[in-house]
Amino acid sequence: MAYQVRIAKSATREIRSLDPQVKERIKVKLRWLGDNAEKVIHHRLSGLVLNQKEVFLLRVGDWRVFYLLSHENKEIQVLTVIHRSEAYRSLP
Looking at the 3D structure of the chain, how many domains does it have? Predict the structure, then answer.
C-alpha cells in the first residue's frame, strides 16, 4: 500500500528553485519512495530527532532529502531538499 508523501512549504520552494532535470529526478524518487516505503531500508540520521520522531535521509544524485516517516499513518513528510555540500553542515 502506498504512503502519502507530504512536502513542507520550505521544501516545495527549494524544489521549485532547482534545475528542471534535478526537480524531475527528485519528484520521481519521492513517488518511488511513497510506493515502496514498506520495502525500503530507510537511512536514519543518527542523533537527529524532530518532535520525538527520527529524521531519515534520501539521496538523489548530489541532493539530499530529509524526511519523517510514520508507518502508523502511512505518511512521509519531506522536511527539506538540500545540496550534499551543505546538507551536513547545519546538523548538530
Answer: 1
